[in-house]
Amino acid sequence: METELFIGGKWVPASSGSRFDVLDPATGDTIASVADGTETDAIAAVDAAAAAGPAWAKTPPRVRAEVLRKAFELMTERAADLAKLISLENGKALVDAKGEVTYAAEFFRWFAEEAVRGEGSIATAPSGANKLLVVRQPVGVCVLVTPWNFPAAMATRKIGPALAAGCTVILKPASDTPLTALAMAAILAEAGVPEGVVNVLPSRSSGKVVSAMLHDPRVRKLSFTGSTEVGRILLAQAAENVVNTSMELGGNAPFLVFADADLDAAVDGAMIAKMRNGGEACTAANRFFVETTVADDFSRRLAQRMSALVVGPGTDEKTQVGPLVNEDTVAKVDSLVRSALDAGAEAITGGSRPGGPGFYYPPTVLTGVGPDSAILREEIFGPVAPIVTFTSEDEAIALANDTEYGLVAYVYTGDLSRGLRVSEAIEAGMVGVNRGLVSDPAAPFGGVKQSGIGREGGHEGLLEYLESKYIAVSW
Ligand code: NAP
């Protein structure tokens, strides 16, 4: 297992010599000690990325594509080992970790295919005097900052398009889950990524190292996935050098169930939208709005399914719900549930934190949740489904939009025109209609409002790493 920094194609200790521990969320025990990158290391990583930039930008797109394709193949071959590593450091159930590896590898395959679609445009100026030629060029050195909840997929969703576009990168993974990022670095090196093109910098001093890089004028792009709170700080820092930014931030997804929906399908979809990754997903259904006439039925069926889930260590094959990633996360979930219960909600399954070691929280369904509850305003990031009722389409849309977030929404209805009408009215970057899963490497993923700026995946994901250069030509 790699535990050093990866800079300029070499595994190196932190310049300070210091290291930090990575914990197993199932037990709280230390599983590895990782080099703790400093500001000096961060600048060394920028040096490496800047030095490698011109040659990588000039590397033929077909060659860049083949390196990414090879990385996809290596990830696929080693899927079982990667899944175990993700499960070990993140806590998620192996079944979710395997799903993540497939999803993550697919970004390399997708962007291998996109790398060779080097489009531009040419037009005649309205005056007729000249031509308007537009070419696309790589943005340059990119800083990529990722969260712990999808340690492989959030990295490949950025590295894939950056490399396809001809950019070089420094990845700063979450300090709860650096091991997966380091394993990805090893795979990319083996796939043929030249020295300095990808650098990985685990650090416990995230604020300092990212700030040092954002203040280096050679850095031209920041792609961040994480909380809205940290996103705001980084947007302000990026403004100082006018660094290009892509922001994938928090969510507060509404899950709407209309009375005309197929309730079996709605419960199936709810289980995926809520419980994929144990609820630790930005796309997790955070608020369930159910039409009054079917609310009792839906709630009862959802509670039955939730209470039947097997909770245990993520690395155990039988586990369906692993522990949450750390103590802070489980404490936050517990406090949101307690305050909803204090305000009159009822837990029809789950609802209290078990004793014992590890960061566990049981699958929970809450009914009778008051409209002002904090649990409807904040990201829960755990296996808790609060249910609220509505009586009309307009009310459902108003409830769904009553949040500063706008990442994803889910709509269940038997009436397709209603599904599309509601999709248009909901303020979100993505909507699942009669589906509890929207993520797809071939589709543009991202949010509106305070859920972010820009898109990852799809063709749009590549454009985030390219600048358009306009050349006025007369001939
Ligand atoms: P986070 O606390 O915002 O951390 C995200 C990353 O930023 C980590 O690498 C973290 O490093 C780093 N960081 C923290 N403070 C920083 C600072 N002051 N300056 C620079 N970097 C800093 O988020 P998280 O708890 O890891 O992840 C959960 C959040 O991510 C949720 O809000 C979730 O919705 C969001 N998310 C969004 C998407 C999306 O696509 N929209 C996808 C997945 C997750 P450390 O680990 O060292 O603190």
What does this structure look like?
- With 475 residues, the protein is α/β, with parallel strands linked by helices.
- It folds into two domains: 271 residues, Aldehyde Dehydrogenase, Chain A, domain 1; 178 residues, Aldehyde Dehydrogenase, Chain A, domain 2.
- 40% of the residues lie in helices and 21% in strands.
- Strand 8, helix 6 and strand 9 form a beta-alpha-beta unit.
- Helix 3 packs across helix 4.
- 55% of the residues are buried.
- Bound molecules: NADP nicotinamide-adenine-dinucleotide phosphate.
- The site of NADP nicotinamide-adenine-dinucleotide phosphate has 29 residues, from helix 7 and helix 8.
Topology, pairings included?
Elements: E1 5-7, E2 10-12, E3 19-23, E4 30-35, H1 39-58, H2 61-77, H3 79-90, H4 94-115, E5 121-124, E6 131-138, E7 141-145, H5 153-165, E8 168-172, H6 178-191, E9 198-200, H7 206-214, E10 219-225, H8 228-240, E11 244-248, E12 253-257, H9 263-275, E13 285-291, H10 292-307, H11 327-342, E14 346-349, E15 364-367, E16 384-390, H12 393-401, E17 408-412, H13 416-425, E18 430-433, E19 452-453, H14 458-463, E20 466-473
Parallel strand pairs: 7-8, 7-10, 8-9, 10-11, 12-13, 12-17, 13-16, 15-16, 17-18
Antiparallel strand pairs: 1-2, 3-4, 5-6, 6-20, 11-19, 14-15
Helix pairs in contact: 1-7, 2-4, 2-5, 2-6, 3-4, 3-6, 4-5, 9-10
The structure holds NADP nicotinamide-adenine-dinucleotide phosphate (NAP).
